[in-house]
Every structure is written in C-alpha cells, then in structure tokens.
Amino acid sequence: MPPRATGAWPLRLSIPSSPAWRGRLTRGWPAIAITCHAGCWRPRTCTPAAAPRTAPAGFARNAERTAMRILVIGAGGFIGRHVCQALIAAGHEAVPAALRPVTAWDTPQAWARALAGMDGVIYTAGCLRDQAEGVRDLLDLLHHRAPAALATACEIAGIRRLVHVSALCGGPSAYARSKQAGDVALAGRAHIVRPSLVLGPGGVSSRMLARLSRLPWLPLPSAVARCHVQPIRVEDLAEGLVRLLDAPTPHVDWTAVGPQIVTVAELIAQRRAASGRAPARLLDLPDALSRLSARLGDRLPLGPWCSTALDLLARDSTAPDACSPLGRPLRGALAGGWT
C-alpha cells in the first residue's frame, strides 16, 4: 500500500458516498454477460497492434519537475483510485474532490473552492446510466457539462494542467453522444484521454470477464464476441495520466490503448488458457435476447449490464497507430491481476 499523502488518504468519493454511487461513477468498461458462436473455442493468434509509439514530440515532458497538489475527480472509482496511487508514487499529493451535490458540478463557481491551492486536475468521473438516485440527464452532466464548467474554472484560477478521461467509443447511444460533446467542449483546453477497455485489479469489467473465463459454457451476444478491443492495463493508464500533467501546452490528446488487438471472445479465451483451463464451449445469444436482457438491466440497475453496455461492447474500440506518453512499451492485458 502506498504511503499516505496528507489530506488525500484514505480515498474519498468525489460524489455522494452511498454504495450505489461507487459502482456507477467507476470508470472502465461495463462488466457484462457476453456470448459467442456455438462450438469449442480455442485460443488463436490474435491480431497484434503496432507497438504504441512512445513519447512523441507532443508528449515531451517539461525538464523541471516538482511535487504538485493534484485534484482528482472520481477518486473513489476504478481509474481514480489507481490515479491517486500513481500520483503518490510520482511524489505528488493526490487530493480527492469532495464537491457535493453532483448536480452543482455544471457551474464554474462550484469548483472555485476545490481548486484553491491546486497545481492541476485529473477528471475521471463517469457513469453508464442516464439517471441514478433521482439525478436525471446524468450522462451529459458528468461527461459534458461538468468537465466544461471545470475547464472554465481552471482557466479563471490560472490552472493550466487539466487531464480529462473520455472514452474510445462511437455510435448513437446517449453515452457516446455525451462523451463526444465533452470532447468538443474541452478541445484545446485539456489533455483528453480516450481509453479502450481498461483492465486491472478492482475493475468490475475485469472481475466479470474473469468469472466468464471460468465457465465451461460461455454465452456471448454475437456482436460482442466479434467486437475488437485493444485493452490497456489500468496501471499504465494511471501512470500515463500523471505523465500528461508534465506535458507542455498546447494540450495534446492520448488514445489510450494496449499493445494487442483482440476480440472480446478471444480475450476471455486467453484468460482461460492462462489459468490452465480447457477451451470453453461457446453459445451464441440471439440479438433479440441480448437486447431484452439489456433493457431489463435498464429497469433493474442491479449491475452494470444495460443497453449502454451492450452498445459499447458491440462496437470496435481500437487505434493501431496510437502514441503513448509513457516512454516505454505498454503491458499486455494478461500482465497482471484482474481481480
């Protein structure tokens, strides 16, 4: 466990602290039940992505490096927790935001007190559903309006180091539209980071994929089974977010992907093979049944499975020619624990 940083450890949620919120504002891909074609799946050689180019000119770090106080929004979430650990490991102070209520996040004035004395900000908050605990239009609030208001507040306070975690996604879903709107609002005002599937200890997606890899029969929606992702380890993502604090302006974007392009089904098969298990039997879930289960998840939010999750995991999330600010090769998806 990393040493404590004054005022920043143990971590606190940057949103209302009820247990239900902890999962909803956790970054990373949704943990879901997925499916594939009938038959016995055997791991095969997956398409390797070109090794991410390291430290291009736009990611060059400033020569001078001093300890900084960094405000972390979403510090109680999957990515946020790892960001705080990476900040402390780099000699900085991680300060979890404690701004309440979340409905006030869309005004620059609401951020003024939280930004006092800060040298930079990393925004990792996000959600999958558009309504939670009575808050409506939550996707646009967390992914668009709040980051835009925060950027304005940073400009007023003279804070030039702002790193915003978006997502490498597309499609017509409300989630994708809110992410795209946030990217437009922050263009040129923040380092925008768009990760593919994020894997690592503490991630709900990682836990679910690990559980699926232990099943002798593997049910996956066919669109999800064929979907290509480029998983990045949460440890690499967090370290990269911290590195961007040192990147000089103008702000640069980072498409955060790992070294391997793989389908979701192949990823599960690799995990299963790595644990010494025989290939699983794959079952192809019909699209109608997949949609029905996702709509049920919309109405009964007992977990992350919902229409947004299905839409995200049915669309490719890759960037073969992406650069990395880490200055070293990134780790593979299986290079470390998932739970």
UniProtKB/TrEMBL annotation:
InterPro entries, per database record: ComplexI_NDUFA9_subunit, Epimerase_deHydtase, NAD(P)-bd_dom_sf
Coiled coil: none
Origin: domain of life: Bacteria
Domain annotation NAD-dependent epimerase/dehydratase: ranges: 70-212
A GO molecular function held by the record: protein-containing complex binding
Pfam families: Epimerase
Protein name: Epimerase
